[in-house]
């Protein structure tokens, strides 16, 4: 089967699904449009977490996004996940996600304050030198830690920049987009410097380094590669040693992590695409769609068909 891309969820789909109707005026302000809708291209928005979070129905299910995003917290906390890892964001932290990465938000505390910002490639490339400049930002790498912990002084500087960006976004000057672009690039460059200069949070043992390398690799390759031997080869160790290290550090064997990624990818496809079950099995690298259906039910308690129906036609009590 010809390789197909996992579908994406754009900002309009996200807000329609998770934002309550009471927040429409806020959405119109964030999108800078009367109907609260974002254009297909050249997307930018910045919003205060304390204004929006109370109108969002958490948790937010995993999905791929069409936009780059980051959130900075002044107060409170948020719990976010990617394909395999769970991250707790607290005060004076900033979290980045690249377009195309799978992410979810489990929870956001009621006292959370800060900023949430989204932009697409078309917007930011008007101000960056080229695509490679965007791709080389370390916190947008597929295998990177998306979190940056800031000192109180550094966090104050981020807040000042974000407040300036918000003010520009809300005004009606003809050159505001250029000003937003300049300020946004300044923030990204400052965070790149901060990321590069961050000291290691701890000393890692050899098994922990191996397990971390595996987790990074499996997120990128699970659809095409499902054997422990492949990942062991990527790390220049034996499959037995890889499994021992991964199980020691995570409590689960290599195969369980591979399956976790595949099940997550399957959920995204079932929710966001019109592909039939056989096509989804093929996209995920399963030659036998019946085997895929059995595996999915074993790990979710739903058949792929019933999971899709539950998501698209939820029971309202």
Compact summary:
Keywords: DNA-binding, Transcription, Transcription regulation. The protein has 317 residues and is α+β, with helices and mostly antiparallel strands.
Describe this structure as you would to a colleague:
By secondary structure, this protein is α+β, with helices and mostly antiparallel strands. The protein has two domains: 11-197, Regulatory protein AraC (Jelly Rolls, Sandwich); 206-312, Homeodomain-like (Arc Repressor Mutant, subunit A). It contains 14 helices and nine strands. It has helices spanning 11-18, 24-31, 49-52, 121-124, 131-135, 152-170, 176-197, 206-221, 228-234, 239-250, 254-272, 277-283, 289-300, 304-312, and strands at residues 44-48, 60-64, 68-75, 77-81, 86-90, 93-97, 102-108, 113-119, 147-149. The strands form two sheets. The chain has a five-stranded antiparallel sheet with strand order 1-8-3-6-9. Strands 2-7-4-5 form a four-stranded antiparallel sheet, covered by helices on one side. Helix 9 (228-234) crosses helix 10 (239-250). The model is unreliable at 1-5 and 313-317 (pLDDT under 50).
Features:
about 325 residues; Arc Repressor Mutant, subunit A; four-stranded antiparallel β-sheet; Jelly Rolls; alpha+beta
């Amino acid at each position: 089967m010809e390789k197909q891309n996992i579908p994406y969820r754009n900002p309009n789909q996200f807000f329609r699904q998770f934002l309550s109707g009471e927040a429409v005026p806020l959405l119109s302000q964030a999108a800078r449009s009367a109907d609260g809708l974002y254009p297909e291209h050249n997307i930018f928005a910045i919003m205060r977490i304390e204004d929006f979070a109370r109108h969002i129905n958490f948790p937010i299910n995993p999905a791929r996004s069409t936009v780059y995003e980051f959130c900075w917290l002044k107060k409170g906390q948020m719990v976010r996940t990617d394909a395999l890892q769970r991250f707790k964001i607290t005060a004076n932290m900033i979290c980045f996600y690249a377009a195309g990465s799978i992410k979810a938000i489990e929870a956001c505390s009621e006292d959370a304050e800060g900023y949430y910002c989204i932009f697409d490639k078309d917007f930011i490339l008007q101000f960056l030198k080229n695509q490679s400049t965007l791709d080389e930002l370390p916190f947008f790498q597929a295998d990177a830690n998306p979190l940056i912990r800031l000192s109180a002084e550094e966090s104050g500087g981020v807040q000042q920049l974000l407040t300036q960006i918000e003010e520009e976004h809300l005004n009606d000057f003809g050159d505001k987009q250029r000003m937003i672009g300049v300020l946004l690039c300044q923030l990204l460059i400052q965070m790149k410097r901060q990321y590069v200069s961050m000291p290691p949070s701890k000393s890692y043992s050899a098994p922990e380094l191996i397990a971390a390398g595996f987790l990074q690799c499996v997120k990128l390759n699970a659809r095409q590669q499902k054997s422990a031997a492949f990942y062991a080869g990527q790390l220049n160790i034996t499959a037995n040693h890889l499994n021992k290290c991964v199980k020691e550090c995570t409590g689960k064997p290599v195969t369980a992590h591979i399956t976790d990624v595949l099940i997550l990818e399957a959920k995204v496809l079932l929710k966001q695409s019109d592909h039939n079950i056989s096509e989804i099995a093929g996209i995920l690298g399963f030659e036998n769609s019946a085997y895929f259906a059995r595996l999915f039910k074993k790990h979710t308690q739903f058949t792929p068909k019933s999971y899709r129906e539950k998501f698209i036609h939820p029971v309202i009590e």
